[in-house]
Amino acid sequence: MIEKQPTGLAQELDALTDAPAAHRGPRCSVGALLEAADADVAASLRAVLDTTSVSATAIAETLSRYGDPVTAYTVNRHRRRGKPNGCRCER
Fold it and tell me: Is the pTM of this model over 0.85?
């Protein structure tokens, strides 16, 4: 146990609480694509992501034909954004 509290300890602990959380792992490739795409493509991609009748595999294959490879797993994870098992993109 600490017998004497070091000066500034409370301030440093408060600073840790207020600091933004460090994110681990690579950025979501679907989120990155949405940011880089022009407005029409981004709107179309958002619409198809919200259409549950379109499979993640179909979306991933289409996106991969026009750029870097995207997996169905990544598309599904992006669809779950905001949930504990989703990507960290905002909902």
Answer: no
